[in-house]
Amino acid sequence: MVAVQTQDPFGSNRVLRGHLVDRNALDVVINVKGRMVTIPLNMVSYVAIPAADGSVFEPDYVMAE
After folding, report:
1. Which of 7, 23, 33, 50 could form an S-S bond across to 45 if both were Cys, CB 3.0 to 4.6 Å?
2. Through-space distance between the first and last CA atoms of the chain, rounded to whole angstroms
3. Model pTM?
4. Partners of 28 in the beta sheet?
5. Which tens digits make up the pLDDT trace of 25-41?
6. CA-to-CA dists, residue 38 to 2, 11, 14, 15, 46, angstroms
7. DSSP secondary structure string, 5-46?
8. How many CB atoms neighbour CB 65 within 10 A?
9. Based on C-alpha coordinates, what's the Rg of the chain?
């Protein structure tokens, strides 16, 4: 299970949680409730592995808006 924080210029930032399927030079692909979601790397702020309680540690280098 991974949590992917997205960041875009339109302010529709969100966290997607699912199983990591693939990561390549252009995209991160995760499985969210049986559906494959492809997220371009230029829209990814960070990818984290959630703790057992479901909380996600936000890295210090992520800028809050």
Report:
1. 7
2. 26
3. 0.79
4. 23, 39
5. 999 999 999 999 999 99
6. 14, 19, 14, 13, 15
7. EE--TTS---EEEEEEEEE-SSEEEEEETTEEEEEEGGGEEE
8. 6
9. 12
